[in-house]
Amino acid sequence: MSNESLAPASCCSTTNAEGPVVSADGRENLLGGDDDMTTCPVMVGSPVSKSAAEAAGLFRDHEGQRYYFCCAGCGPTFDSAPAKYAANAA
C-alpha cells in the first residue's frame, strides 16, 4: 500500500499548441495566458483557455459567437439550450 495521495483528474489540465505555458518563476500555467482566457458558459466561473479548448474541440458557435467549454460534458449541455447558456457568457 502506498502513502501517495492521488489527485483527481481535472478537465482543465491542458497545454497550448506550443506546449505548457511557464511563468517567469518556472511554474507551469496549465490555463494559458491571460489574453487566451475566458469562462465556461455552462459551468459559470470555470476558467477556460481558448486555444486549449479549441484544440480539444471543446467549443460551439452560436449566433456568430464562439463559446469555449471547460470539459467535454459542457458541449452537449450547451446544445440543449444554447440561448440560455450564451446569456451566461454575456
TrEMBL record:
Pfam families the UniProt entry points to? YHS
Residues in domain YHS? 61-87
Protein name stated in the entry: YHS domain-containing protein
